Amino acid sequence: MASLAALRASNAQLTSATLPKIAVFVGGTSGIGRATLTQFVNQGYPLKAYIVGRNEEEFRPVLRELHASNKTAELIFLEGQISLMAETKRLTDEILRREEHIDLLYLSAGFLPFLGRQETSEGLGLATAVGYYSRQIFIQRLLPLLRAAFNPDTDQYSPRIVNVLGTGVETTDLYLDDLELKQPGHFSVQSYAHHSATMTSVSLKRLAEQPENSGITFIHHHPGLVSTEIFKKSWGDQWSEDKVAGGPNAPSDITRSSPEEAGARSMYVMTGSQYGGNGIALTEGQKKGLTVNDTTKGSLFCVGDKLETLQLDGLLGKLERNGASAIIWNKTNELIGYYL
């Protein structure tokens, strides 16, 4: 695991050439996303960032702080409810209308469904709508803009998708006939975490391996346990301090950090060259990370909480061989196809 000092040293080498010029942050208004957005803007270089969130008025003081830290930054807030697929389509329509290319799509919105399975007005599970389905719409609809940003003849920043969720807990033990976890006894925080992580890695791997996306780096990143407001937000009006002890089980050696530290790791993941693409050069002793297929490019990078790359070819390969990957992909596009 790279030390925080080493990550910050790497991030300190960032230049205009190794930063995305146009970035989209879905979930940049709080927690890890906000910390990453702040560090991104505070680099001081000319850039444009789209920030997708629910309440522009509430976020306006932060926007003023960000503008004050970097007067060359163009910050565009897009207000909408990404729990609704129709709203997600509207938000992506706006980006597609405004831009011919983007360099980075950073997705970190989500919450833990402690209150049980809730449904949106569109009939999707609320937690899965936010943490998986809306992200798929952002990714699939904005892929043409990311492809347009790729230039094989330059060593400047190359386009990336960084999906911050829960890689490392993927499983072959899935309810393939009930991926929405609607049936009695199927839904829990743990089953949601396993299903959403697996569905994310399966779908990102498929997209990463499509030839037309070969110039885009796809990353699924587990941030570890970060001291954000996610527990309070997830419990809603049922929150109390004693709820902290009732969180999901986590390995004793999992990385625990502040939002600022998690933001520094995210900056490294999205700008370094360790996980594919052009970026900050590796230091002495560092090695290129490997995709889930044990290659240095051409597939998905799953980056764990210690910034190690996870070789999930056995697990994901089994899902492909037994037809589970195809079921996940087909069900995903059946549910969101109207909005693509």
Quickly name the level 1 CATH class.
Alpha Beta
Which spans of ≥5 residues are poorly predicted at pLDDT below 50?
none
| The CATH homologous superfamily | NAD(P)-binding Rossmann-like Domain
Beta-strand residue percentage:
5-15%
Shape: globular
CATH topology, anyone? Rossmann fold
Task: Round the mean pLDDT to the nearest integer and report it.
Answer: 90
Tell me the strand order in the biggest sheet. Answer: 3-2-1-4-5-6-9
N- and C-termini, Cα separation:
38 Å
- Provide the gyration radius in Å: 19 Å
Largest sheet: 7 strands, parallel
Please write the string of helix (H) and strand (E) elements: HEHEHEHEHEHEEHEHEHH
CATH architecture: 3-Layer(aba) Sandwich
Name the structural class. Answer: alpha/beta
Q: Portion of residues in helices?
A: 25-40%
Features:
340 residues; alpha/beta; Rossmann fold; seven-stranded parallel sheet; two-stranded parallel sheet; 10 helices; oxidoreductase; Short-chain dehydrogenase; oxidoreductase activity; NAD(P)-bd_dom_sf
